[in-house]
Amino acid sequence: MKHHTFDQLRSVADVNPVAPVATRIQKIKRWAELLERNPSRCLSALNGTEYLYPNMREQARAPGSPLTVAFEDPLLRAAGLQSDTYGEAKRFFQLSDWELHEIVCSCHTGATMQAGWAAGRVRRIITGNRFLAWLRSRFVH
Predict the structure, then answer these.
(1) Of 20, 19, 69, 16, which Cα lies nearest the Cα of 42?
(2) Which sign does the torsion angle of CA 136, 98, 72, 40 carry?
(3) What are the pLDDT digits (tens) for 44-65?
(4) Which residues have a Cβ under 8 Å from the Cβ of 78 and sit 6 or more positions away?
(5) Domain containing 64: what range?
(6) Cα–Cα nearest to 87, from 65, 115, 67, 58
(7) pLDDT at 22
(8) Position 124 in a domain
(9) pLDDT band (50, 70, 90) for residue 141
(10) CA spacing 20 to 30 A to 70: which of 50, 102, 126, 139?
């Protein structure tokens, strides 16, 4: 294998350096961006995550799920994402069971979902649920 400098590579190819994803927010934003690239893509949901025993939930996966979209990304894998299982996504993105359930569980969408819908759920992790925030502001002082 022959090694080249970055400038040498740029002379023969369109090379765009990408900033690494290191923080929790950067990882989650990257995941949402990946899902938004093809918003009508049909993705598989995970079945009944809230009913699984914890050790089974950790290993749960569905081929072609929103978790698979994240795992297909070389940047997220380079940042440490090791598989497309529920438990690995929970660890890597630092999500609670409730947050991850809201994104991947079939009880919200049935057996499949569109990637754009999943992207909105992923982004909600960062932005929060605006309706609930509004309710809290009205009733909690």
Answers:
(1) 69
(2) negative
(3) 999 999 999 999 999 999 999 9
(4) 20
(5) 18-139
(6) 58
(7) 85
(8) yes
(9) very low
(10) 50
Site of tokens 């961006």: 33
- Write down the pTM of the prediction: 0.79
Determine, yes or no, domain membership for 13.
Answer: no
CA distance 54 to 109: 22
Going by the DSSP 8-state scheme, the letter that residue 114 receives in this structure is: E
Is 12 inside a domain boundary? no
The answer as to whether 46 is a domain residue is: yes
What gap in Å lies between CA 37 and CA 28, rounded to an integer? 15
Q: How many domains does the chain have?
A: 1
Tell whether the model's pLDDT for residue 28 goes beyond 60.
yes
Two tokens, residue 61: 């996966």
Type of residue numbered 23: T
Strand partners, 43: 113
pLDDT digits (tens, 9 = 90+) for 60-116: 999 999 999 999 999 999 999 999 999 999 999 999 999 999 999 999 889 999 999
Q: Across the strands, what pairs with 95?
A: none
Question: For the chain, how many residues are written?
Answer: 141
